[in-house]
Inverse folding.
């Protein structure tokens, strides 16, 4: 249907947002979503014109919209100013922390961590998706399509596999019944993170082997932060801490860099 | 080429945002009655006052059996010393419950033949209390070393408290049994994960002599203060007896904002619905049925938010907001001593506004709540209350033109209220209709009144 995978991402993320708002008890207000969208898109336009970016303005706006939808899905705040800060910093991170067209941080993740660290009223709601099977299937199905389009499904599999492995091992060691672990892993936020956040090709390593090591490192750090330091935002902090390694890993393992333009060319021909 | 597509995407996003259903509810009206925690069988109540890693936990003991049979075992994140334990007042929890309970507010329709004027009134009523035992104590035998370390052992008023750490759950189970705590079979399986996570066990029973001397009729709540990043409540031990569904009402007091669960969904109870006036006399039963319906709708696996508000005010108030002293008794340690501003109006306030209360109601069973409850404090300062609205129809002379019009609009309104009630509670609409005092409407020549009403008066 769409030639550009970003269109799929926009549609999927927007439908998740709609689904969450309509069927879940989310404490997200329209003005917060609007402020995220506006701040992301405006920052993109302003900074894009300042650095005289050669990229198609509409395509960069699409990326900004994806970031704002990701933030709307995962970040919660009491004040509009917090959301504006998150949106602006998320997009600004793309311009500030960048080497050879690769970002050090996933923009939405940067926005989330910045809001958590810099403001008193931001939080993430890991429990608010619930653990319904229906959502699990929906996420996997839709995420799968996006990943296949983008070609970075391996990070999701490596992350989910190692994270689940660690949780299962801990569950067995503690002598807890299996349903405790299943309940823990059946989290909508975890899947959303694994399928849509750590698969962003512009901020993950280029070579498959390094991507897998990178994903496992995030899983281990997230597991430790969650279970031994009781940090609810463990996955986001873990990605934030390990993300800059992408640049180093790309230096040692070279592989063809991902570019959205291959899709643009397909589309125009 | 890309422009239409991105515009479509943007439009889609905008439509999504506009599809939010935000209801503007004016919080006025008058408090009539509430559904306190007592209306729920087996409801345990816990007050958690938490700021950062510091916690004061207050546990109500609604133990109804013989006092000598009382015993409780609670996993705690750190070893508790004598000075970290305090025996609180029962009234403290009652106060917090009364302040945060789901409430019924009432309005009186004005006389349509006169200039509109709002009349209000308040009526209090009582609910039927009931509760269940939490454990039994049978005999006392001397302590043996079973890989169990008695970290501390002390008396606080009528309570005898032992702080234990253990290496093996079997040893702990045996120790508890040998020391007269009649814990059920299978306990070691549930105790084991806590031991491996290095949790300690807070074990309490009653010194009957001391209790009799104290002159209290009921057990007072135990309060413990500790510092730990773990913000959780162990409920797995509560499922040990497989007693079916258990109600737990948690009042969290914190300086920042609402508290929610991180490993279960937190869902708001229905609120703001207009219901028939007869519910005034059976509000307890109404709220129980409403809660049961929404509990089943959510497949019995979510926690419910019943109240979230800054404690310095309320609207309408089910009881006066807690004073600074009462908050302190409930464990709030971050507030400076504030003074009450005496007020006869519906809005009362105290000078300090640094405490937010979240009332969560969890009805749990072993299969739907496999994990202990994990919480987090959020920056969400949105107010919420379980609130139900009752409008009393005007009962006076309606002979004027406006009065006749009012009478015509009244019946559909009462029908709507009946339908709301049926939707909320699952009660039969027929039963509801039989309890509503529908007005007899004079036949109207104009078309507003359906013709069949004149023939079938029950419609």
């Amino acid at each position: 249907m769409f030639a550009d995978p970003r269109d799929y991402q926009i549609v999927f993320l927007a439908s998740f947002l709609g689904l969450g708002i309509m069927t879940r008890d989310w404490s997200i207000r329209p003005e917060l979503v609007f402020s995220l969208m506006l701040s992301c898109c405006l920052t993109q336009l302003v900074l894009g014109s300042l650095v005289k970016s050669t990229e198609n303005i509409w395509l960069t706006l699409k990326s900004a919209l994806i970031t704002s939808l990701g933030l709307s899905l995962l970040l919660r705040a009491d004040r509009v100013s917090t959301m504006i800060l998150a949106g602006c910093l998320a997009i600004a991170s793309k311009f500030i922390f960048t080497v050879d067209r690769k970002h050090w941080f996933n923009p939405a993740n940067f926005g989330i961590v910045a809001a958590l660290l810099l403001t008193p009223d931001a939080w993430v709601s890991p429990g608010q998706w619930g653990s319904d099977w229906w959502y699990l299937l929906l996420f996997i199905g839709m995420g799968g399509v996006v990943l296949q389009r983008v070609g970075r499904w391996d990070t999701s599999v490596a992350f989910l596999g190692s994270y689940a492995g660690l949780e299962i091992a801990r569950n067995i060691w503690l002598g807890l019944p299996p349903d405790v672990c299943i309940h823990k892993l059946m989290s909508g936020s975890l899947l959303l993170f694994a399928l849509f956040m750590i698969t962003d090709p512009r901020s993950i390593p280029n070579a498959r082997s390094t991507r897998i090591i990178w994903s496992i490192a995030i899983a281990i750090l997230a597991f430790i932060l969650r279970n031994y330091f009781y940090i609810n935002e463990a996955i986001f902090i873990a990605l934030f801490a390990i993300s800059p390694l992408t640049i180093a890993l790309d230096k040692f393992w070279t592989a063809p860099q991902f570019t959205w333009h291959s899709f643009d060319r397909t589309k125009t021909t | 080429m890309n422009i239409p597509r991105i515009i479509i995407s943007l439009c889609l996003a905008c439509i999504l945002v506009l599809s939010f259903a935000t209801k503007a509810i004016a919080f006025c009206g008058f408090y009539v009655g509430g559904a306190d925690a007592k209306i729920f069988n087996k409801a345990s109540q816990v007050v958690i006052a938490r700021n950062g890693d510091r916690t004061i936990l207050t546990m109500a003991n609604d133990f109804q059996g013989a006092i000598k049979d009382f015993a409780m075992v609670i996993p705690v994140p750190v070893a508790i010393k004598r000075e970290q334990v305090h025996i609180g007042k029962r009234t403290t929890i009652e106060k917090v419950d009364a302040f945060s309970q789901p409430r019924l507010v009432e309005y009186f329709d004005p006389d349509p033949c006169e200039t509109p004027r709002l009349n209000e009134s308040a009526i209090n009523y009582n609910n039927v209390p009931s509760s269940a035992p939490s454990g039994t104590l049978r005999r006392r035998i001397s302590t043996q070393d079973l890989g169990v370390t008695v970290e501390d052992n002390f008396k606080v008023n009528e309570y005898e408290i032992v702080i234990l750490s253990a290496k093996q759950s079997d040893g702990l189970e045996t120790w508890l049994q040998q020391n007269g705590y009649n814990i059920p079979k299978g306990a070691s399986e549930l105790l084991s994960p806590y031991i491996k996570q290095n949790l300690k066990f807070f074990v309490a029973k009653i010194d009957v002599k001391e209790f009799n001397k104290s002159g209290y009729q009921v057990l007072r709540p135990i309060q413990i203060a500790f510092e730990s990043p773990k913000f959780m409540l162990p409920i797995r031990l509560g499922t040990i007896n497989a007693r079916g569904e258990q109600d737990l009402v948690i009042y969290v007091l914190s300086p920042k904002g609402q508290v929610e669960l991180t490993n279960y969904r937190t869902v708001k109870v229905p609120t703001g619905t207009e219901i028939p006036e007869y519910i005034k006399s059976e509000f307890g039963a109404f709220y129980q049925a409403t809660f049961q319906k929404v509990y089943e709708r959510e497949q019995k696996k979510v926690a419910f938010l019943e109240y979230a508000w800054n404690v310095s005010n309320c609207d309408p108030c089910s009881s006066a907001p807690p004073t600074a002293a009462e908050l302190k008794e409930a464990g709030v340690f971050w507030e400076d001593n504030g003074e009450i501003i005496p007020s006869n109006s519906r809005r009362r306030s105290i000078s300090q506004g640094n405490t937010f209360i979240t009332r969560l109601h969890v009805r749990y069973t072993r299969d739907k709540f496999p994990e202990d409850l994990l919480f987090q404090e959020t920056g969400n300062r949105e107010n919420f209350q379980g609130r139900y609205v009752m409008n009393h129809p005007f009962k006076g002379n309606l002979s004027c033109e406006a009065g006749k019009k009012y009478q015509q609009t009244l019946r559909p309104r009462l029908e709507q209220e009946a339908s709301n009630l049926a939707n909320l509670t699952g009660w039969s609409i027929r039963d509801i209709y039989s309890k509503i005092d529908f007005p007899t409407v004079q036949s109207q020549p104009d078309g507003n009144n359906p013709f069949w009403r004149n023939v079938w008066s029950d419609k």
